[in-house]
Amino acid sequence: MMNILSHINFSSPNNLPLIIIGAGESGVGAAILAKQKGFNVFVSDANAIAEKYKHELYKYEIAFEEKQHSEDKILQSALVVKSPGIANNTIIIQKIKQKGIPVISEVEFAFQYCGESKIIAITGSNGKSTTTALTYHILNEGGFDVALVGNIGISFAKQVALDPKQWYVAEISSFQLDDIVNFKPYIAVLLNITEDHLDRYEYNFQNYINSKFRIIENQTNEDYFIYCDDDPVIQQQLKNISITHTNPLPFSMKHEIKNGAYLKGDQMMLRIQEERVSMSIYDFALKGKHNTYNTMAACIAATTVGIRKEKIREAVNDFQSLAHRMEYVATVRGVDFINDSKATNVNSTWFALESMTKPTILILGGVDKGNDYSLITDLVKEKVKAIVCMGTDNKKIIAAFKNVVPVIVETASATDAVAQSFKLAAKGDVVLLSPACASFDLFKNFEDRGNQFKLAVKDL
Questions:
Q1: Pairing state of beta strands 267-272 and 260-264?
Q2: Is 128 annotated as a binding residue?
Q3: Which residue from 127, 291, 297, 347 could staple onto 286, CB 3.0 to 4.6 Å apart?
Q4: Are strands 408-411 and 384-390 parallel, antiparallel or unpaired?
């Protein structure tokens, strides 16, 4: 296959015109790196640009426009870096591609300037933020010169431009993988694949699966592929493709693994080349079956890069979970409150419920992304004593669970949702915010939703 970037001299671009489409964290980071390396950079965003990003563009003297796309200027570009939030079927991207201008993602652009640095790239439908943060934590505690980048940290490109490191631990989405060419992680981690973002993939699940597997397409026999051997979608895809070009390191809770990780009773067993490590899962800071999988993946990566088992044990034990991802908020009169606002799809809520060990008041709702609530019906029946809806339109949730739980309450704010949940809870119960929906009906984003939830809990 012809390399669409072969004609571009990244080491000496000599003012070559480069357009960035989208001016969020990813786009502005790419613009800063491109300006630093000698491209003639122009940033274009169809929407208003946030003030903090405008400030950065002014600071680095980068030309930009907002609330429009100047097609004449854009279509004269030699290269386009597209932000992950912009779909390939948007009109401007279609016109760029029709003109034959290469379109790449910010992670591909950053990769061009990584040199000898190594990348641990982590993807999956659920758990990638937690796994990325834990992997970074272990490497950092192990004394590595490492940065946390991608969807979770600062822009990969911005980190490369302003503070390059020997190691990058990167959370990578399918949208970023869609526009790679040469991007090649030293360690690729694929946690799981469940239906998500199908509106970006022509409602064809296989297209989304193919996108996730692009994380290994440029790997060689010097690289490693860590994946969940219990995930049925990954298992099926591995029957159809070859992974002999990389070094597979699977992990499983169901069966013994010769080279990778598996559970034996309550012990996680690691076998990486000559290394043999065992750890009690009760020592993991992250609880729940899904987090055991996440921890196994992070531990394989850490062992592969040579971190001592004592350091891994310490780091896994003292890791603090992420804000808005199964975040313990407070216990009020014997009732625990947990903020899982980052659960914006049904699968994420499934994982949250699966880890609950106490009777649960579940706060659900927001902007529905075509949710199939039947996926969590059994867990709701088993663990949930009441559902508190928090959204502008709760009809679908009520229809899905009216015959499953005895109590369903409607609310339209975080304050009301917390108050109603507390009223329904008894000592020893858990109130779990795990909405299974996007947040844009009542909140700016999932962080705003989680923060308002935490404030409401503190005001009880």
A1: antiparallel
A2: yes
A3: 291
A4: parallel
Encode pLDDT of 448-458 as tens digits.
999 999 999 99
* Residue 283: inside a domain: yes
* 423 annotated binding-site participant: no
Structure tokens that stand for 287 in this block = 């609880």
Q: The domain spanning residue 29 has which CATH number?
A: 3.40.50.720
Count other C-beta atoms under 10 Å from residue 64's C-beta. 19
Res 1 pLDDT > 60: no
* Calpha distance 204→215 (Å, rounded): 19
Compute the distance between CA of residue 164 and CA of residue 113 in angstroms, rounded to an integer. 9
Ligand-binding site membership of 374 (annotated): no
- Tokens read off for 420: 């109603």
Region 344-365: mean pLDDT is: 91
- Across the beta sheet with 103-105, the strand order is 63-66, 40-45, 17-21, 79-82, 103-105
Query: Same structural domain for residues 298 and 152?
Result: yes
Find the domain containing 241 and state its range: 109-318
Give CA–CA dist 375/350, Å, rounded: 7
Residue 131 sits in the same domain as residue 147: yes
The predicted model gives 439-456 an average pLDDT of 94
Please say which residue of 294, 318, 342 terminates a domain: 318
User: What span, in angstroms and rounded, lies between the C-alpha atoms of 300 and 261?
Assistant: 7
What is the β-pairing status of strands 146-150 and 384-390? unpaired
| Same domain flag for 189 and 265 | yes
Within this chain, do residues 129 and 34 fall inside the same structural domain, yes or no? no
Question: What total of structural domains would you count in the chain?
Answer: 3
What's 435's domain CATH number?
3.90.190.20
Q: Is residue 12 part of a domain?
A: no
77 annotated to bind ligand: no
124 annotated as a binding-site residue: yes
CB atoms within 10 A of CB 303: 23
DSSP state of 253: S
Contact criterion met (CB below 8 Å) for 429 and 407: no
The answer to whether residues 113 and 85 belong to one domain is no
User: What pTM value is reported for the model?
Assistant: 0.82
393 and 282 within one domain: no
Q: Is the dihedral of CA 393, 399, 404, 407 positive or negative?
A: positive
CA–CA gap between residue 104 and residue 44 (Å, rounded): 15
Residue labelled with tokens 């299974």: 436
Q: Is 129 annotated as a binding residue?
A: yes
178 and 256 belong to one structural domain = yes
